[in-house]
Write a structure and sequence with these properties.
about 350 residues, alpha/beta, Aspartate Aminotransferase, domain 2, Aspartate Aminotransferase, domain 1, 2 domains, seven-stranded mixed beta sheet, about 40% helix, binds pyridoxal-5'-phosphate
Amino acid sequence: MQRAEPQDFSRVLSSMCTEPHPAAREAAGRFLATNPGDPGTYETVAKLEREAVAILGEIAGLPDAAGYIASGGTEANIQAVRIARNRASTKTPNFVAPASAHFSFQKAAEVLGVEMRVAPLEDDYTVNLEAVDELVDEETALVLGVAGTTEYGRVDPIPELAARANAVDALCHVDAAWGGFVLPFTDHEWDFSDADIDTMTIDPHKMGQAVVPAGGLLARGPELLDELAIDTPYLESTSQVTLTGTRSGAGVAGAVAAMRELWPDGYERQYEVSQANMEWLADAVADLDFDVVEPDLPIVAMDLGPDLHAALRGEGWRLSKTEAGEARAVGMPHVTREMLESFVADIRRLAD
Ligand SMILES: *Cc1c(COP(=O)(O)O)cnc(C)c1O
């Protein structure tokens, strides 16, 4: 039998994951048999996890952040809704999310039995604040915004959303799962220093160039995480706030290694390269007379039509679709200018 090999990244435009930094790969390999879910036994990886949270806090404008390394953005988002639900005084809480929110919030609503109220978007793909005002009420436990939406890379008006949460004593959550490692180098207001945010999702295993799995949940203070605490009788530690039990020490060690190497200069350079590449792609595709959604952050959506989309996939291009049917390309670190030139050449050839 031939040994299975993973895909290479040479034609992957669809993914929000990427080739990990070599230091992350190396550290992950060394920590494969460790479990940060049992910090009393696995002390070194537990210490690394505290370092990971501290660096994530620095990236997100929150010195002394509370939080932990989760399995991904999905777990972090579910936990943020859970904190808000457990803290709410009503038995019938709801949370308000933009229509652009990641599908993990639907999972959160279902698993936790919390009503999800969806606010429509403006023409620029950010949330409509008047709609949020209509949806928020006394039973709202959480108002959330997305900093770097999955489809178009847009940033919701975070300070305005935080103010609306405050007005009804709800929490404010920011989902920066993908955007958190590029936003520090932009003018957007998205982090804990810009607004009264309570919790944030920020994933090292996306733009952070860590190994999978490494998501991040940050909280303004430990008392928010305490909303999640469950007693753990047979572990050396006495309580646990995470959703999963045994967790990936490789993910934690990989995240620390990548962030030590790359924060801040390496990430800044990557943001600049990725942003320039996606602007180049948007211009090149627009020159071929296709409608393009301009990249605010390094994501481009292109209205190529279903036939061309299928033909490009036939050439091996990995290209996802937005809900509206546009082809979506994410400017991850493995996406180079050379790769995009070859992609545009294929569009030109196949479009005739
Ligand atoms: C990718 C993503 C998620 C989900 O993260 P996973 O690591 O895939 O669970 C949540 N929110 C946003 C904005 C994302 O881009």
